Amino acid sequence: MAVFNLRAYDDHEQVVFCSDSESGLKAIIAIHSTALGPATGGCRMWEYNSDEGALIDALRLSRGMTYKNAMAGLNMGGGKSVIIGNPRTMKSEELFRAFGRFVDNLKGRYVTAEDVGITPADMAMVHKETNHVLGLEGKSGDPSPVTAYGVYMGMKAAVKHRLGRESLDGVKIAVQGLGHVGQYLCEHLSNEGAKLLVTDINKESIDTVVSKCGAIAIDKDEIYEQDVDVYAPCALGATLNDVTIPKIRAKVIAGAANNQLAEDRHGDELKKRGILYTPDYILNAGGIINVSFEEKYDRDAALRKVDEIYNTLEEVFATAEKQDKTTNVVADELARKRVAEAKKQ
Ligand code: NAD
After folding, report:
1. What's the pTM value of the predicted model, to 2 decimals?
2. Comparing 3-63+75-128 with 143-339, is the CATH topology the same?
3. In this entry, which stretches build a coiled coil (predicted)?
4. Given this model, what pLDDT does residue 20 score?
5. Distance 177 CA to ligand 1 centre (A)
6. With contact defined as beta carbons under 8 Å apart, do 79 and 5 qualify?
């Protein structure tokens, strides 16, 4: 495999292949950029089909963290790690401690946290070997309510820009995915008087939101074509694709899910149809902003920083309009600019 030539390699500073035969650990730590500070991003545990698949995932995710942290105005670079293996059957204290030693060897160039397949208890074992861990239990706590607050603020910026409405009162919003973030988001939206149409694959979650927020339940396959103002993807990635985009009737897309555009070109498709896409990594940065305050945790200070998502998005929307570009391209360009400026200093 020609690693340096991979498209996803994209100028990574360092990639560490970690292996520990005693515990069975196989992991990859990808450090995309430390220009703005220690490369910070979660650790994912996943049963990849191939080592190449694991590498590409780590590379893509770590570059994404550079952009997310840069646009959130944090002094943190971008990195991510993946542990290759089945999270249901392959976890052990030895494995996580071995991973922790690899993180520690990087002497703070990479700071890890929880991601898909990893629990707070797993991170506590990593922490036995290294202090370079964020999001530990008893510190900044569950990031989801703060992520949801950021999505709510960012959605307000998008609705104001596209629909000229200051408030979400009476705005019709389709929320897809009522998990940790989706449920908190629905509370913010209904408190402001939004009309909610919601869906999930879990009936209990739907029932909770229907009764708490007066939402209307929609079949999961019919969420795209709803006659709404906003579509909020809060479940999985890649829900904006060739099949779904022609069905979407909303004028604004703003949700918590990571990697909503199946491919960058889908940003062009949305623009052509007059649909305002709110770049996901700007909108869902509340969680990482929250952990960035962990050292001396101050919830109010974290929320004030999350409020800035509104202004950041106003800048992205205005620039996209002025330069006749898609919002996803403008967001990437602004993120790269901040990193390039930091490199010069
Ligand atoms: P979660 O797993 O708690 O919730 C996801 C929900 O989506 C679940 O209720 C699940 O049943 C539902 N779902 C799955 N497939 C679906 C489908 N086809 N149709 C409708 N619903 C479906 O996850 P979460 O923590 O709420 O995160 C939601 C999204 O936001 C994820 O993409 C996550 O990566 C992203 N995100 C979360 C945070 C955070 O702080 N939790 C931060 C940044 C980004």
Report:
1. 0.94
2. yes
3. none
4. 98
5. 6
6. no
Judge if the beta carbon of residue 177 lies within 6 A of ligand 1: yes
What are the per-10-residue average pLDDT scores of the chain (345 residues)?
Answer: 85 97 98 97 95 94 96 97 97 98 98 91 96 90 93 98 98 97 97 98 97 97 98 95 98 95 96 98 96 92 97 98 98 96 88
Cβ(328) – ligand 1 distance below 6 Å:
no
Separation of 215 CA from ligand 1 center, angstroms?
Answer: 18
CA distance 269 to 251: 13
Nearest-5° Cα angle at 96, 1 to 25: 35
Domain edges within the chain: 3-63+75-128, 143-339
Q: Taking the mean position of all CA atoms in its chain, how far away is CA 267?
A: 17
Integer-rounded Cα Rg, in Å, for the chain is 20
Question: Is 143-339 assigned to CATH 3.50.50.60?
Answer: no
- What is the rounded distance in angstroms from the CA atom of residue 206 to the CA atom of residue 218? 9
Say which CATH topology domain 3-63+75-128 has: Rossmann fold (3.40.50)
pLDDT confidence of residue 5: 87
Q: Is 256 in the pocket of ligand 1 (CB under 6 A)?
A: yes
Distance 250 CA to ligand 1 centre (A): 20
Q: What string of DSSP letters covers 157-214?
A: HHHHHHH--SS-TT-EEEEE--SHHHHHHHHHHHHTTPEEEEE-S-HHHHHHHHHHH-
